[in-house]
Structure prediction request, 527 residues.
Amino acid sequence: MKRLANFYTEREQSILGGGFILLLIVLWELMPHLVPLSKGFSLFFTTPWKVIEAGYQLIVENKIQEHFYVSSIEFLAGLGLAIIVGLPLGLITGRSRDLDATVDPFVTIFNATPRLIFLPLFILWFGIGIWSKIMIVFIGAVFPLLINTYEGVKNVDRVLVNVVRSFGANEWQIMKIVVLPNSVPYIVAGLRLAIGRAILGVVVGEFFGASKGLGFLIATAATNYKVDVVFAGVAIFMGLSLILTMAVKKIESNLSRWRPEGAKTF
Amino acid sequence: MKKKLFAEHRRFWLGLGSVLFVLAAWEVLLTYVFPLNPFFFTKPSLIAVAFKEQVIYGALWGDLAVSSKAFLWGFSFAILLGIPLGALMGWRRKAGYTLDPFFTALYASPLVALAPLIIVVFGVGLFAKSVLVFALSVFPFIFNTFAGVRSTDRLLINVVRSFGGGETDLYLKVILPSTLPYIVAGARIALGRGLVGIIVGEFYAASEGIGYAISRFGDTYRLPEMFAAIFLLMIAAVGLTEGMRKLENVLAPWKTTQESR
Prediction:
């Protein structure tokens, strides 16, 4: 008995946390047996088991692979573009005060507004194919990357920069030796935020004017009252973003053990 | 003398200059260099006319009011539910252990993917949009209150206890003041997420609202009006975000913002 109590106190955190999630899932599964559901409500109701079945069915019948492929392409291309543009721009604006002042109004304005409002415009410009989605992913993900890289460069130790400069390093060498390594933790944190924005862009972009992709799958399933398929799609998105966020978080905490723990930001 | 004026406010003038330059270049390029295809692009002078028509005389205020209403309902409920939940999680260790993984999973996942279902279930209109705003903006309140309560100085708590302060004293005199800056920082994040909720809800299915206005102007190729609506939303969003940032500085001037914007 004492052993059991020890076992519990040692792992209290994970037992309580995991147990709560498990309890919710079990309750959800048992809900139709516990409370009588009205006919109207059961139209919108599904249970975890049915969601798993629906997900399995989608995979077996080869219905999801194509959507998954399209969504991944949009995600990767948009995020890749955001990295290609955001990183160098963040590095440059962090180093040059005048350039920072010139770009800052645009960064502030675009960062404050939800970039999804450009979706109708992008559909008009780039059509309903994957390019409008790539662009919406790009514009969503580029700002967190740019801003975090900028903050990283700004927080570089002046003394280190001056030392390297005294030894005759040029701007490029300063960047390579001091600035870039120092900003890596910030850049990774920016990447984590950017991944969240990118997934948001993929999902919402595919809701409107699309014929392929996981977001499209969810939207059509919802309008056809296939609630189990909706949840299967949502579960896939949840799983993917959890895996990606955790992976980047892991890298982040490895790289920035020396930084104080702040509030959670996703 | 003039040179000094420029040097002192160099940042401001450079920023203003670059904005004006971009607007002027946009106007000039589309007037003299490229032929303007009105179904595809537009220029600042046309947007200004549309802005005047739509914003000063027109219906965009109505759309903005409709969107604000849904936003306020969702956001208020997010505050009312998120702050007590976060406080509970921070104050009672076991509650924190129990709820943290569940909320973290929800916070990290794109809840916006549920938008079509929420709209199908709750219908087109105020309620579905409010639910969407709530679902997206409640988590920053929960987690920032959580972090704020946890980081409360134990010494201050012990002092109040030693002097015979009760539970209410602790909450009102120690925990609330030290958590407030965190909550305001959370509100700024929640604001951005809530705006996403409004926009998605109105793009997806709505008959009024600023998001609906933008997608309707897009569908009917009325680009100047569309840009006018986008600019109006931008102004509102920047105003709210900067206001929140000011509030943050007033409430916690010592806290240099290290978390990402």
Observations:
- Chain B has one domain: 64-251.
- Chain B touches chain A through 70 residues (CB under 8 Å).
